[in-house]
Amino acid sequence: MAPRLLVHTRTTDYRHDSIPAAVAAVRALGQFDVEHTEDPAALEAALDGYAAVVFLSTSGEVLTPAGRERLAGYVEAGGGFVGVHAAACTEYGWPYYGELLGARFDRHPAHQPGKAVVEDRTHPATRHLPAVWAFTDEWYDFRTNPRGTARVLVCADESSYEGGGMGADHPLVWCRRQGSGRVFYTALGHAAEAYDDPDFRQHLRGGIAWAAGLAH
To answer: Are 102 and 149 in contact (CB under 8 A)?
Structure first.
């Protein structure tokens, strides 16, 4: 029986047109039994049966108070959590979520080609990638740098695109432990075309599998 994923795509702020392509890409990984929802009540129920919960370009406040409590308890007890792209633009009113994810979105320049430097190629989400990964995205800036509380996997090379705002140390992808749980976040995935990219799909597969405790 395939591991179960709860993929949440509720938005109460900006909504990415790429969400249908993103959900389809996660389903197409073939490794997981995917339950997709935009109903906050789905996160009020017991989450123990899921290998991981994935916030896939969520935005704004997407959880009820009961859902917040349930998600925190699930992760602290050993559940997996994955945030993709606008997951960092989510639950600004819940301090725990910022700690869980590792950093919150601040701003982004125009969607444009650039280069990502793969800092750690030993993780399942990055070991297939080249040392310098050419990609097209929004190159999110964050309010704080997650380094120190997270294991940084990929950084942006701000010299390769216009409008970067974090400087020489600009994490884009990281993982961390929260209680007994595992958290993986990737800032990439703005456009639908990203989800057709085989390297990006493998990046997602590895990150989700790591968070779910299925890969090391």
So the answer is: yes
CA distance 150 to 42: 28
Residue 20 resides in a domain? yes
Dihedral angle, C-alpha 165, 191, 211, 102, nearest 10 °: 20
Distance between CA atoms of residues 67 and 55, nearest Å: 13
Residue span of the structural domain in which 60 resides: 4-105+147-152+170-211
Q: Which is nearest to 172 in space by CA: 147, 195, 193?
A: 147
The CATH number of whichever domain residue 65 belongs to comes to: 3.40.50.880
Domain for residue 28, yes or no? Answer: yes
Q: Looking at the DSSP assignment, which residues form a beta bridge with residue 211?
A: none
Tokens of 21: 């392509």
pLDDT tens per residue across span 89-127: 999 999 999 999 999 999 999 999 999 999 999 999 999
Predicted TM-score (pTM) of this structure: 0.98
**CA–CA distance, 38 with 11 (Å, rounded to integer):** 8
- Number of structural domains the chain divides into: 1
